[in-house]
């Protein structure tokens, strides 16, 4: 069975781009290779209009599960799937043409959720209070607390983190346990919450726990040769149809975005910072090499033949991570601007006239087939996060952003 490396996969992706048709919104390959001029990365007005359209559509089509028999973990009001959208909208709101309506909507959602972290697994012995996905909504709550100073927005997050610190989880990395961060998605869901709480409270214990836990996951799941994350330990020996290792596009997007989120919260002088900057550089180099020539990343990073379609949530998360890395000074702009230009142009083209972002792989754990009609709130949330960083990337070049509240 042939093994495919990152370098070989990048070459295969380039070949696939020349031969696969109907990958971008049903258009032939040739039509997909030339991004619309109006979505140039430097066009601030187009970027604001695009992201506002996505935000508006997602708010208008927002729904959540609230019945005891429903899947509250994936679809409840405080679920990770919705929390990513809340977080993206919180970050985007100050840049929007409609900041007050965005923030009012967010406050309404937070009030409906009672600003509480979900506790769906208290009786589950392998998960209990430790499941990282449940902490994702804490990023939204803490961001709102920093804006408004309302203690109700902080209380549940702090209580959950304090319970975890006072009763530490099982640190074994078996993939069936969710007490430790045994899957790479967790690196987005939980670490930025601890880093933000450390920043807000000044308590180093949160940062110490986060850093130790993150490094444990890194040691377990990061492939040093390919410079990518396995989704969890069950994928170590699995292979794609072409013989390549299984590296999930969105999973590595979660990991890269999680690193970027931690860096946003860490002080410049933090002794932990070099580790996360270096990790972001490693991930960025591998991911940039695997980008399709038309700007997107796929559900499978190393098997473009089996998964030729674009995947929007991976693309948006990676775009956010790379742009945030450039803005933080961790990545060189000259090297990554071409990657970001193509990625943002593709994301813009993946949004329909109403504001729905298509090509979003449904909830899962590994590469799956994706179509243009598939969408999810976490895809929109990741695009909003990326949109903010794209505007900040061009802040010095932009003159027509008078509405932005600094």
Describe this structure in words.
The chain is mostly helical and 406 residues long. It has one domain (6-64, 73-393): Glycosyltransferase (Alpha/alpha barrel), CATH 1.50.10. The protein has 16 helices and four strands. The protein has a two-stranded antiparallel sheet with strand order 1-2. Strands 3-4 form a two-stranded antiparallel sheet. Strand 1 and strand 2 form a beta hairpin. Helix 7 (132-148) packs parallel to helix 10 (191-201), helix 10 (191-201) runs antiparallel to helix 11 (204-221) and helix 13 packs across helix 14. The longest helix is centred in the middle third of the chain and has 18 residues, at 204-221. The protein starts with 5 loop residues before the first helix and ends in a 13-residue tail after the last helix.
Keywords:
about 400 residues, mainly alpha, Glycosyltransferase, two-stranded antiparallel ribbon, about 0% strand
Q: Percent of residues in helical segments?
A: 40-55%
Number of domains: 1
Strand residues, percent:
under 5%
Strand order of the largest sheet: 1-2
Structural class: mainly alpha
Enumerate the spans where pLDDT stays under 50 for 5 or more consecutive residues.
12-37, 398-406
Instruction: List the secondary-structure elements in sequence, H or E.
Output: HHHHHHHHHHHEEHHEEHHH
| Architecture per CATH nomenclature, i.e. the level-2 architecture | Alpha/alpha barrel
